[in-house]
């Protein structure tokens, strides 16, 4: 039975020169590829979460960052639109990696139902 090095030598004539290099390259090729993330979107998401924590914790003490009355707009009023923007950007980026459109729609529907279920359960409704 042929070993991994024998197979590499047969497929690559340069394997006789440095078999360890080719084995390392073969091992790297077998690793699953990680999806590339959009750093700016991750940073914006982190800043929005930090803003949400700040507004929730200090909004009562500093009126500038608390929720505004009906006739105004403060920092707290931007948290939800920022999250909606992040979701609007993240969905197309994640769905473009799924080649089958029906499978992509199915995943979106299942995830939506899971989020609704847990939201209702955690809110006590």
From TrEMBL:
UniProt-listed InterPro entries: HGSNAT_cat
Keywords from the UniProt entry: Membrane, Transmembrane, Transmembrane helix
Span of domain Heparan-alpha-glucosaminide N-acetyltransferase catalytic: 37-122
NADP found in the keyword field: no
Transmembrane segments: 38-55, 75-95
Protein name (database record): Heparan-alpha-glucosaminide N-acetyltransferase-like
Naturally occurring in which organism (per UniProt): Phoenix dactylifera
Lineage of source species: Eukaryota, Viridiplantae, Streptophyta, Embryophyta, Tracheophyta
């Amino acid at each position: 039975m042929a070993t991994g090095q024998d197979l590499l030598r047969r497929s690559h004539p340069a394997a006789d020169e440095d078999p360890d290099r080719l084995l390392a390259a073969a091992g790297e090729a077998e690793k699953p590829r990680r999806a590339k993330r959009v750093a700016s979107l991750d940073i914006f998401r982190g800043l929005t979460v930090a803003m949400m924590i700040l507004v929730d914790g200090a909004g009562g003490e500093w009126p500038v960052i608390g929720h505004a009355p009906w006739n105004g707009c403060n920092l707290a009023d931007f948290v939800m639109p920022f999250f909606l923007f992040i979701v609007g950007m993240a969905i197309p980026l994640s769905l473009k990696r799924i080649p089958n459109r029906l499978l992509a729609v199915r995943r979106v529907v299942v995830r939506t139902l899971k989020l609704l279920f847990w939201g209702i359960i955690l809110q006590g409704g």
